[in-house]
Amino acid sequence: MEEDNWTQTQQRSLPVNSRALLLVNRHARQGEKRLIEATYYLEKLGFKLTEESTENPKHLSDIIRRYQHKVDLVIVGGGDGTLNAAVDGLVETQLPLGILPLGTANDLARTLAIPNSLAEACQIIAYGELRRVDLGWVNGKHFFNVASMGLSVKITQKLTKEMKRRWGIFAYIATALQVIWESRPFSAEIKMKDQSFRVKTVQIAVGNGRYYGGGMAVVHDATIDDQRLDLYSLEIEHWWQIIPLLPAIRQGRHIRWRSVRALQGQKFEISTRKPRPINTDGEITTYTPATFQVIPKAITVLVPPI
């Protein structure tokens, strides 16, 4: 494994013999087969590893809490759902996070410019910068990337683990097209500061980072440490109206379209006539009515040096 130029000159942010808790989602698309490879790279880079795994990702935060005083950092291998399952433990213990992108979409890794190459991701954990990043929060649940309702929830409900494992990012695309075709608008009220908006929409997304849903951007210039949330509401009446919007949604430039309401702030409240499920980082975790907030500089992550 050849080191990049920056690894040859960069000082390590953590000591060479740092004790690392390695958590890998064996059910992630690349989890099991990449575990041996990751262990090899990390040990070669000097980390003293304690490997733990669980059949239920919901136990990840408990494992992190258990090792709070026994390790110097936590390395999580998996996708956005796995990282989201670990986030509460990271907030409580304040242990630094290293990321191995082993999932299908890897949107948090994309936001942080962490490459999908396992060798390069391990180099970043060894030689990267320690960077404080924001988290989103909705109804007591933290999220890295996006919390949303509408189309994205229906995609999550239809997208099975088997589909993601077999088809990868193409599973997202095929499922999204089916959901868009079946979409129906719903009514919601959005409140921020002293303003209130009544909307008829097919999708409301509240972003903390930049990317979600396999590489779509919430807003083209969003960053995960800008201490703001970016909200957009997709206010179309017929499914076919979303087709010309798709390229702009991919780039995060849909906020310029007339049928898209775009807001920025540190806190939003959203209510609907009946409770609607909310998707946080790819998992349905709460329902409306919902309060969304940004938690500035909430945790530390190892990222490529600037």
From TrEMBL:
PROSITE patterns assigned to the protein according to its UniProt record, in alphabetical order: DAGK
InterPro entries reported in the protein's UniProt record: ATP-NAD_kinase_N (IPR017438), Diacylglycerol/lipid_kinase (IPR005218), Diacylglycerol_kinase_cat_dom (IPR001206), Lipid_Phosphate_FormReg (IPR050187), NAD/diacylglycerol_kinase_sf (IPR016064), YegS/DAGK_C (IPR045540)
Matches recorded under Pfam families: DAGK_cat (PF00781), YegS_C (PF19279)
Sequence ranges assigned to domain DAGKc in this UniProt record: 15-142
Names of required cofactors: Mg(2+)
Keywords: ATP-binding, Kinase, Lipid biosynthesis, Lipid metabolism, Nucleotide-binding, Phospholipid biosynthesis, Phospholipid metabolism, Transferase
GO biological process: phospholipid biosynthetic process
Gene Ontology molecular function: ATP binding; kinase activity
NCBIfam families associated with the record: PRK13057.1 (NF009604), YegS/Rv2252/BmrU family lipid kinase (TIGR00147)
Family in the record: Belongs to the diacylglycerol/lipid kinase family.
Name this protein carries in UniProt: Diacylglycerol kinase catalytic region
Gene source species: Anabaenopsis circularis NIES-21
